[in-house]
Each structure stands twice: as structure tokens, then as C-alpha cells.
Amino acid sequence: MIRFEHVTKYFGERTVLDDVSLDIEPGETFVIVGFSGAGKSVTLKHIIRLLTPDLGRVYIGAEAISEATGRDLELLREQFGVLFQGGALLEWLSVGENVALPLRERTAMTDAEIERRVQEKLKLVNLEGVMDAHPSELSGGMRKRVGLARAIVMNPHIILYDEPTSGLDPVTSRAIDQLIERMRQELNVTSVVVTHDLFSALSIGGRIAMISDGRIIEMAKPADFIKSKNEVVKSFLDAQYITKRGVWERGNHETHE
Fold it and tell me: What span, in angstroms and rounded, lies between the C-alpha atoms of 40 and 36?
């Protein structure tokens, strides 16, 4: 379980997270949405301790990662895989070398073992046969999938996704959604997804939390989230035509004039 207990974070005089408390269950896909600058990515960075709360605590299981140091922090971080917004691939390395990087840095696996693991993860994200290609030769969607293969190569318990569909066309975005769901089903991982793509959030989320001005203003399952009475949530839904032009249901998007 991932748990936030009354987490507050300041950037100078600005409050970016304001008394945030939440629980994310093992095996859940938890999606965080909100307008730009609302605190979504700041929340994600607290989970893996790239940021430390000014007040409150963040727990991974029974351990307070917000207070961990040294080897204890390293061990907690080993539970995570991260898909960064831009993929964060090293352009001078091949696809296979990019995916293998965590294995070479953090394990004593042989070259043969590493190659088998890399091929296994590339197959899982539907990218067989591109081991020797370089990132510059790949489409945006393929780069995201390579980034995902690298995120799962260490067999993490938790995957953090930072805007996984950003910059992608709708068809490719839906393919990434399907991969996120596949990771949950086949690897039994806990997923935390930060996204501005509301269609994606409604499709993959077990629960959706909306942050506004550093506070969680709504947290609900997708079917309940779209029925929110909160005016900020309603404006967010309307901006993406989820409620203005239709009724969204899981697996069905009907339009009503």
C-alpha cells in the first residue's frame, strides 16, 4: 500500500500540496488528474522520494519513504519502475542497451541473462525485433513502449507513469492505455498514473483523484467521478467533452445531442 498522511509541500511561499491524505491499494491503478500546476507531478515525485514533504509522511507499506535514508531508501526505490513523460531514453544507446541499463547498473546478471530479460520485456510491450534500433529511429509511441520496457525490466511492484499519453495521437494513446492495463493484469503491479488525458484516466483507472490548488477535491471510481457535483471537476470534464456532449461509460461512449 502507498499512503499519504497529511502531506504538505511548499515551494517558497507557494503551497503545492496542502494536507493531502490518500491510500493506494496493492494491485490498483490509481490515476491523478488536474489542470496544469495543480500538484499532480509533485504528488508522484513524493511517492518515490524525489521530493520530501515539509509536513506529513509518505509510506510504502509499513516503511516511511519520506524519512528513509541511505540503503533503506535504496531498497524502497527498488520496488519502483518509472515511465517518464518523454521516455528519457539515451539517444546514443540502442533500444536493447536502454532497456538493459538498470540490469547492468544494479545486478550481477550475465550478458546472456540480461539479453533474455530484455527480450522478454520488449515482447511484453509488443516491441520484438527492435533491439538494435536507436531511439531516433522510433515513433513517439514506440519510444514510450521502450521506456515502459525499461521501467519493468527489474520486475517492480509499483509502476509510476508521468503523462504516459502526452504528445501521442489518439490511436497510439489508446494502445498505451491497453499496455498499462496489461501490466496490471500480467505483472500484478500497483500503478500510479499522472495524466491530463481524461479519456485515458476513465479507461484505465480503478479510482481517479483530482487535485486542484494542491488539494484532492474528488476521489472516486470512474463511473462516479463523471457524476461529481464539484464545479471544478465538472469544468474539467466539460473541457474534454466527457459530459458536455455525451455520457461516458466504461467500454461505451454514447453521444446525445
Answer: 8
CA angle 91–93–96, rounded 5-degree value: 125
* Residues 46, 52: Cα–Cα separation, whole Å: 6
- Contact indicator for 28, 207 with CB cutoff of 8 Å: yes
The x, y and z cell numbers of residue 133, run together, are 534500433
- Residue 93 C-alpha cell reads as 544507446
Question: Which pTM was predicted?
Answer: 0.86
Q: Tens of pLDDT along 157-205? A: 999 999 888 877 888 888 888 888 888 888 889 999 999 888 889 989 9
* R_g of the chain computed on alpha carbons: 19
What φ, ψ does residue 252 adopt, rounded to 5°?
-150, 130
3-state SS class at 190:
strand
Alpha-carbon span 202 to 253, nearest angstrom = 11
User: Listing from the earlier edge strand, what are the strands of the sheet with 63-64?
Assistant: 14-24, 2-11, 55-60, 63-64
Comparing CA positions, the residue from 202, 142, 149 lying closest to residue 172 is 142
- Distance between start and end Cα atoms, the chain: 43
222 vs 11: CA distance, rounded Å: 31
